[in-house]
Amino acid sequence: MSERKPQVLLIGFGGVGTIVSYTLEHLGRAEVTVVSRPETYDSIKSGYRIESCSYGIIDNYIATNVVKSTKEGYEKYGPFDYIIITTKNIPEISPVVDFLEDCYHESSTIVLIENGIGIEIPIYRKYPKAIILSGVSLIGTTLYEDTVKHIARDIIKFGAFINYNLDKQMQYDRCKHFLSLYSNDNNFAEYEENVKLTRWRKLVYNTCINTTCALTDLDFGRMDLFGGMESVVRPAMKEVVAVAKSEGVEIEDHVIDEMIRGEDGVYYPPSMLIDVRNGNYIENTVIISNVVKYAKRNGVPIPTLTVLDNLLKLVQLRTGEAKGRFELPEKRPLPEENYQIQFKY
Ligand SMILES: NC(=O)C1=CN([C@@H]2O[C@H](COP(=O)(O)OP(=O)(O)OC[C@H]3O[C@@H](n4cnc5c(N)ncnc54)[C@H](OP(=O)(O)O)[C@@H]3O)[C@@H](O)[C@H]2O)C=CC1
Ligand SMILES: CC(C)(CO)C(=O)C(=O)O
């Protein structure tokens, strides 16, 4: 009798999610059940084309199971060994913790392969016995309709967001097991126990470059050539390093230059810029507002990050209005009316 393969539920079958799912399935190491939205069910079920710098061309990748909701996934194929979340993390619009409502089981390990800081906290608040793994990925991959273009190798660090209610070693072991399913000759997947360091290091990039590119509608290369790297990005990066330090995380000086020169030779659009260009919500809360929150709490001056954060909050509201999240009165309210935006969701 063949051994039962680890069962994985994956929520967020976009640029990163498709590569994660294919990575786990193509060597037969796990079986993935993908949760689609009702409107994307048919295309996910018919398969995506993957054009990958690491795995080559896969004409039609179809995950083992595709379901229209987490509830359907759980009822048909659960409980899952791993629940992987690779959506954009936008707590004010669709909190990640809500995805777990109908599919979480105490035997499941949650794997968050998303950018940002503080993303595990709402989950621990609701599920104090949960095991949550962190995946911090340096990859370049985008879903265009039903084709995923994967242009930069998957360099990913996994570690456990330590849950102090549980045995530490058990969490490390779970992480190492997941790594053994994920790691192969075509990616560079590593175990990194210091999740805080990995996440803050990545923020040196995301908090400064994603945000500046998104606000200026410039890709990384253009933003550099036009002078933004020295005028905005470097000062912002120094502030992130200072906030990390106030959180007990030492980021070495060379990291800033490594991030600044990391995409030399290409005009790379970071994911937040792609979201703005597509009229989508952005991950400003977990990528910058949470950093600003920690800075305020710890008394770290962050003039550049404060401006970037405030501007991005305006961008998010602009998107919200365009998406019908609220409607403004036809006549502009006067200050004395104390008008408050009424959100529909
Ligand atoms: N792309 C990259 O190269 C990198 C991305 N990251 C991070 O990885 C994470 C994922 O990014 P990325 O793959 O680019 O994002 P994408 O927008 O490409 O993919 C997210 C997917 O999640 C789906 N989704 C959202 N909500 C739900 C839901 N409720 N049910 C089912 N599906 C849902 C979206 O569907 P729909 O379109 O219908 O909303 C979309 O297909 C982010 O945190 C990002 O910052 C990190 C490193 C690099
Ligand atoms: C670092 C980078 C650009 C790719 O991994 C990223 O995290 C993003 O696009 O959000």
UniProtKB/TrEMBL annotation:
<dbReference type="GO" id="GO:0008677">
    <property type="term" value="F:2-dehydropantoate 2-reductase activity"/>
</dbReference>
<dbReference type="Pfam" id="PF02558">
    <property type="entry name" value="ApbA"/>
</dbReference>
<dbReference type="InterPro" id="IPR008927">
    <property type="entry name" value="6-PGluconate_DH-like_C_sf"/>
</dbReference>
<dbReference type="InterPro" id="IPR013752">
    <property type="entry name" value="KPA_reductase"/>
</dbReference>
<feature type="domain" description="Ketopantoate reductase C-terminal">
    <location>
        <begin position="194"/>
        <end position="315"/>
    </location>
</feature>
<feature type="domain" description="Ketopantoate reductase N-terminal">
    <location>
        <begin position="8"/>
        <end position="161"/>
    </location>
</feature>
<keyword id="KW-0521">NADP</keyword>
<dbReference type="Pfam" id="PF08546">
    <property type="entry name" value="ApbA_C"/>
</dbReference>
<protein>
    <recommendedName>
        <fullName>2-dehydropantoate 2-reductase</fullName>
        <ecNumber>1.1.1.169</ecNumber>
    </recommendedName>
</protein>
<dbReference type="InterPro" id="IPR013328">
    <property type="entry name" value="6PGD_dom2"/>
</dbReference>
<dbReference type="GO" id="GO:0015940">
    <property type="term" value="P:pantothenate biosynthetic process"/>
</dbReference>
<comment type="function">
    <text>Catalyzes the NADPH-dependent reduction of ketopantoate into pantoic acid.</text>
</comment>
<dbReference type="InterPro" id="IPR036291">
    <property type="entry name" value="NAD(P)-bd_dom_sf"/>
</dbReference>
<dbReference type="InterPro" id="IPR013332">
    <property type="entry name" value="KPR_N"/>
</dbReference>
<comment type="similarity">
    <text>Belongs to the ketopantoate reductase family.</text>
</comment>
<dbReference type="GO" id="GO:0005737">
    <property type="term" value="C:cytoplasm"/>
</dbReference>
<dbReference type="InterPro" id="IPR003710">
    <property type="entry name" value="ApbA"/>
</dbReference>
<dbReference type="InterPro" id="IPR051402">
    <property type="entry name" value="KPR-Related"/>
</dbReference>
<keyword id="KW-0560">Oxidoreductase</keyword>
